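Here's a chain:
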Amino acid sequence: VQLVESGGGLVQPGGSLRLSCAASGFAFSRYDMSWHRQAPGKERELVAVITSYSGRTNYADSVKGRFTISRENAKNTVYLQMNSLKPEDTAVYYCKGRLYAIEYWGQGTQVTVSS
């Protein structure tokens, strides 16, 4: 089982990034997928989630209207489009797959928002 995040980097405030998470080794389309983030000295928090078949989405209040989660089951990939980035969005971003009590995590990708 692997979840590999990519697309992180350094961006100026107001900029955009698109994160990708490529999954392998499990039945991706059956899993709810989510993005989480952890800033230095803070607990890991849920950013956005997309359900398996219906594709329903939900977002943390802090990113609503700025971030969009999506998935391509044919490519076993989940995305996080991040617009209007703020310095407080700086964190390591992780993707997660969940099916009932089974959870898989990626290794994370660093996002730094700074001028």
The two ends are 37 Å apart (CA to CA). The first strand starts at residue 2 and ends at 6. The CA atoms of residues 8 and 19 lie 6 Å apart.
